[in-house]
Amino acid sequence: MIEVNNVTRIHHRGDTEVQALRGLSCEIAEGSFTFIVGPSGSGKSTLLYLLGALDEPTSGEIRVRGRVLSEMEPAERDEYRRTEVGFIFQSFNLMKTMDAVENVLMPFLPRGITSELRERARTLLKQVGLEHRLDHTPNQLSGGEQQRVAIARALLKDPQIVLADEPTGELDSQTGAEIFGYLRKLHREQQATVVVVTHDQRYIEDGDRVLRVRDGKIDTHAENPVNTV
Ligand SMILES: Nc1ncnc2c1ncn2[C@@H]1O[C@H](COP(=O)(O)OP(=O)(O)OP(=O)(O)O)[C@@H](O)[C@H]1O
Ligand SMILES: [Mg+2]
Question: N or C: which end of the chain has fewer CB within 10 A?
Answer without folding.
Answer: C
